[in-house]
Amino acid sequence: MSADGEDARQPKLPPAYRLVALDSVESTNDEAKRLAREGAEDGTLVWAREQRRGRGRYGRDWESPRGNLYLSLVLRPDCPVSEATQLGFVAALALGDALGVVLPPLAETRVKWPNDVLVNDKKVAGLLLEAETEPDGGLAALILGLGVNVAHHPEETPFPASNLRAEGAGADVDEVSVLEAFARHFLTWVNRWLDEGFAPVRDRWLKRAIGVGEQVEARLAHETLTGTFREIDETGALVLELTEGEQRRIAAGDVYFAG
Ligand code: BT5
């Protein structure tokens, strides 16, 4: 990186994407949302070297210094909002595959509900899905935001965090190479999702997920539930078995392992 923020190497992406490369932005999700409202097409990919106000879910901060990957995709799938959320699971699998290429063979990449990617049990990436809806409730665009810690991570987080370098990725691995690998694998998984539906995505995701079949604590906006994490349903909701035969579907929240 040179002092003026220009980097020599630009990402090479498959033609399905239209890259909007920015140096610094408040949030790539906000920029993608703005472009979507102006009619940006499916596959528009907003990428920034840093974010000044990167966001997590529920308005939380996402630390976004230079050296990590920040991108937001404008997606316009022909389906209702409830199905479009499946794309978060598609993206988590794609990133898992992409990381398999850049990390040492013994590094273990897992996923955590709803949309985190972990390496060696630490969070290296998070996804933020935001839907733009039509007045009739139909989906206008889905903004799929992805942050990947390539070279930096925050220390004081409730769930332990890490970055790819700290987990053994080579010095040649940078935000551009991770972006390229993710973009390729995302296309592969989206095509599979379009051809075969959610079933293969769900199966693979459940195999890679932490906590399936175990006791978890789900912290929701107004209550905390404890039960066994059984599976995810068609909308990506977590199916929690509270007691035998009594299930609750959790659409949004945070899960913790009861221990
Ligand atoms: C997420 O939220 O994990 C979604 C993160 C999405 C970030 C991308 S970057 C590109 C796009 N543009 C945006 O503005 N956002 C998206 P959540 O599950 O709520 O996790 C947030 C929590 O993770 C914070 O409250 C911290 O505890 C922790 N955290 C913050 N920054 C982190 C980082 N860089 N790495 C790991 N954990 C972090």
Structure, explained:
With 259 residues, this protein is an alpha+beta fold. It has five helices and twelve strands. The chain has helices at 28-37, 81-84, 86-102, 175-196, 199-208, and strands spanning 18-25, 44-51, 69-75, 109-112, 116-119, 122-133, 139-148, 215-219, 224-232, 238-243, 246-250, 254-257. The strands form two sheets. A seven-stranded mixed β-sheet has the order 1-2-3-7-6-5-4, with helices on both faces. Strands 11-10-9-8-12 form a five-stranded antiparallel β-sheet, with no helix packed on it. A hairpin with a 3-residue loop joins strand 4 and strand 5 (116-119). The longest helix is centred in the C-terminal third of the chain and has 22 residues, at 175-196. The termini are far apart. Residues 1-5 have low confidence and may be disordered. The structure holds biotinyl-5-AMP. Biotinyl-5-AMP is lined by residues 27-29, 51, 54-58, 60-63, 70-72, 116, 123, 126-128, 145-147, 149, 153-154, 157-158, 161.
Strand content: 25-35%
What is the count of β-strands? 12
pLDDT averaged residue by residue: 93
Measured distance between first and last alpha carbons? 43 Å
Uncertain stretches? 1-5
- Overall geometry comes to globular
List the secondary-structure elements in sequence, H or E.
Answer: EHEEHHEEEEHHEEEEE
Instruction: Give the class from helix and strand content and strand pairing.
Output: alpha+beta
- Placed side by side, the strands forming the largest sheet appear as 1-2-3-7-6-5-4
Total helical elements? 5
From the alpha-carbon coordinates, what is the Rg to the nearest angstrom?
18 Å
Cofactors, ions, other ligands: biotinyl-5-AMP
Major sheet details: 7 strands, mixed
- Helix content bin: 10-25%
